[in-house]
Amino acid sequence: MAIPMPGLAVQGLDINKTIEKLVTVKREPLKRMESEIEELNLQKDIWAALRQRLVTLGNLAKRMYDYTNPFGVLIAESGDKESFTATAERKAKKGQRRVQVMQIASAHRIASDSIKKEQKLPGGIFYIEMGSKKVRVDFSSGGTLADLSSRIEVAGREVVRPSLTHDTTETSILVLDAVKGGTGNVLRFSGDVRILKEAGLLTEGRAEEMRVPLDGPSSWTTLSPAGAVWSVRDGMAALAPGARIEYGLPRAVTAAAGWTFGFSLMIETNSRPRTNQTAVGQTVRTNILIGPDDPLKIEDLTIFGPRLVAGIPVDKTNRAVTNAPARAAGTNSSAVVRLVEGGDVRTETAVPAAFRHGVWQDISLPLTQLANVQAPARVLLVNENTAARVTVKDMVFRLSKDGGLVAKNELVAPRDAIVSIDGVRITRPDNAISDAIEGVALRLIKPGKETMLDIRHDVDLVSKYILELVEGYNQTLLYMNAVTKNLTREERQKLESDQKNKTDLMKALEDKDKADEEKHKGRLPGDMTISQLKSSLGVIMMSPYKTRLERELTLLMQLGISTGKVGATWADLKNSAGMLELDTSVLKSMIEKDILAVAQIFGNDLNGDFVVDHGACFRLYELTRIWTQPGNSGVIAVKVRSLDRVIVEKRKSIDRVEMSIKAYEDRLRAQFGSMETRVREYQERGRWLNRQGQ
């Protein structure tokens, strides 16, 4: 606190101001020291900003050769995006595939009748099945349609999704959607289904019959090899060995609806060899008469022609071999009737028949027993026995009154997706297919014409990554040029004009970069450490690298990456300040020519240990890592730590000077205080003397 000295002040001397002026003079060195600390902190900010740019540059470089590199990225482009789209993983194989969406998968959807909201439904327990899943719904207490919807939603979420729609102000409709599509996921119900019948979801299967006409060949399609004879007349279809014919049903029937499939079948062998029983392992010579239409089947041997003497081996059961017909795989007969799924996909299920020579046999089979066919659209007759003739009659699909409950209001029938890939037709239960083409996921939208699926490298992504690398390099170099040299306005405009086609990645940093450059411009003129870094970066970008194209591609400039165009003057190169330019046309042409070689120039494994150890980006990342590592190993960290030590020492010096100035100020105040006391004493004595003289 200032000590007032009115006496001296009256005489024109302000002690407080005098002391402040004297102390201010003493503080001049402190101002210089504080200014030096501010400059040191600014240098720390510069090194931090440079580190940030080097880290960004290093990351841009590393992603050019690590497991996320763009050279392994593939795209799958559909020739008809309205029909299907596709995505590709890295493991996909390049090339073109012919794809046609023939049918879209759909999930089974049924609806109830429109019933009053307040109508009470009876209670009970029922089951809902879809595919291999079965859920129990406890509706013991009964309730409204809304209550039923709630119970199904809680208990049946694994198989069905219920939804309630108020079609009028007084009535509602319950819709049930199977959670999965495909013909194998039909909604089925069991248990106390009277609840569902009263709600109008189910109804009794109606008596119905659909016969397969066998009155002429015009409705049948031959699939037989040449020479396989078949005929359709008098309500019967006769097939010689090897014959295959197919008939399209007038409409599909659903396995879940309680249909049965029936037919009559007769198998007739053409001849029986005359053999003698003999010892095991012996061979007999038997005269066998074989006519032109009377082939003989002996194990894997089929014989056609006139009288023949043949050696017939005897089996291990001590019986002579006969010409019993061969059995078809998965059946007990080589004479087979098959059902074929809808569309053009050959999803076939064999219908077995017991073999009895020359006797008509009646076959009846519930469609629910056929696992692979849920909605047959064609009947296929096949004779796989090379020694027997097959005759079929009375083919019929039949639905009896007690054939089971069916959906009363089927809104959407369950269907499989059908896709043709390079002529091979496949089926899947849904429209997202990821297991048909290795590494490619298809998303089906609607049926369409055959088109090409092009699986190729993502050239645009490669170009984008390289452009961002060039921009990251230029941003780093631009900053180093700014802090080491006072740039003129013209120089700054030239540097900015050299950066074309900015990407979003770089645009996000530009505002901060410009602010930093303006604030830090010229703060480290001629800094040798930064000059060394600039030189190292230039060497990396101009050095040759090994690739599979050898001399045709060893330098980045052969990819269109250079410090100037061919034929540029020295002045142009000097003004560019080491900035890179990218000729995208040259880059894309090299990518299309050999993308693997382009990848190798950025990062390559020369010693075959599956670890990148060569390439421009490999060296660039290693350089930035040396500069940006924390602790004692990073160049920038060492620089910042050195600046911190200088700042600490300067603050200590400031503290010492502050203490010295405080002591100096205290001495001044003490001295001026003593002087004031003496002056007052002199003034008192003067006034006393004046009084004595009076």
Give a description of the structure:
The protein has 694 residues and is an alpha+beta fold. It has five domains: 6-33 and 640-688; 38-70 and 459-634, no CATH class; 74-105 and 419-457, no CATH class; 107-204; 208-408, Sandwich (Jelly Rolls). Helices cover 33% and strands 27% of the residues. A hairpin with a 2-residue loop joins β29 (417-421) and β30. α8 runs antiparallel to α12. The longest helix is centred in the last third of the chain and has 59 residues, at 635-693. It is elongated, with a radius of gyration of 48 Å. Residues 1-10, 271-293, 305-333 and 567-571 have low confidence and may be disordered.
Task: Describe this structure in a few short sentences.
The protein is of the alpha+beta class and 694 residues long. It has 13 helices and 35 strands.
List its traits.
single chain; 694 residues; 5-stranded antiparallel β-sheet; elongated; alpha+beta; 5 domains; 6-stranded antiparallel β-sheet
Tell me the layout of helices and strands.
Elements: H1 6-10, H2 15-62, E1 74-78, E2 84-88, E3 95-103, E4 107-111, E5 115-116, E6 124-130, E7 133-139, H3 145-155, E8 160-165, E9 171-181, E10 187-191, H4 194-198, E11 202-204, E12 208-211, E13 220-222, E14 230-233, E15 236-239, E16 244-248, E17 260-269, E18 283-288, E19 296-298, E20 301-303, E21 308-313, E22 335-341, E23 348-351, E24 361-366, E25 376-383, E26 388-399, E27 405-407, E28 409-412, E29 417-421, E30 424-428, E31 432-437, E32 440-444, E33 451-457, H5 459-484, H6 489-497, H7 504-520, H8 528-542, E34 561-562, H9 570-575, E35 581-582, H10 584-593, H11 595-602, H12 616-628, H13 635-693
Helix pairs in contact: 2-5, 2-12, 2-13, 5-7, 8-12, 10-11
